[in-house]
Design brief:
Blueprint: E1 2-7, E2 10-12, E3 18-26, E4 32-39, E5 46-52, E6 57-59, E7 67-72, E8 77-82, E9 91-99, E10 104-107, E11 111-115
Parallel strand pairs: 2-11
Antiparallel strand pairs: 1-3, 3-8, 4-5, 4-9, 5-6, 7-8, 9-10, 9-11
């Protein structure tokens, strides 16, 4: 089992920045993908960014150039630096860990990000 705990959400004005963190604990296999999804009311959960254990990254088009995902493998932690935030970035952000061998995802509990003036 793997547990994921997110932190760093909150209320920020448009154009502002936030940094999300997610710490994984438990039986973590080295071959995995970590990253972030988000979900707004009435919308499907969408992939925001992912980071492999080799630091290869992938981003949704809507956040490219504004968000940066990174990870610290020694700390089993993934980060999401969010800059130039827009009201449409408002959502619950969920951290995930994908075990590549089994294609199984573990999820965090979610953290609210609200972008509003």
């Amino acid at each position: 089992q793997v547990q994921l705990v997110e932190s760093g959400g909150g209320l920020v004005q448009p154009g502002g920045s936030l940094r999300l963190s997610c710490v994984a604990s438990g039986s973590i296999r080295s071959s995995n993908l970590m990253g972030w999804y988000r979900q707004s009311p009435g919308k499907q959960r969408e992939l925001v960014a992912s980071v492999s254990s080799a630091d290869d990254t992938n981003y949704a088009d809507s956040v490219k150039g504004r968000f940066t995902a990174s990870r610290d493998n020694a700390k089993n932690t993934v980060y999401l630096q969010m800059n130039s935030l827009k009201p449409e970035d408002t959502a619950v952000y969920y951290c995930y860990l994908l075990v590549l061998r089994y294609q199984y995802k573990y999820w965090g509990q979610g953290t609210q990000v609200t972008v509003s003036s």
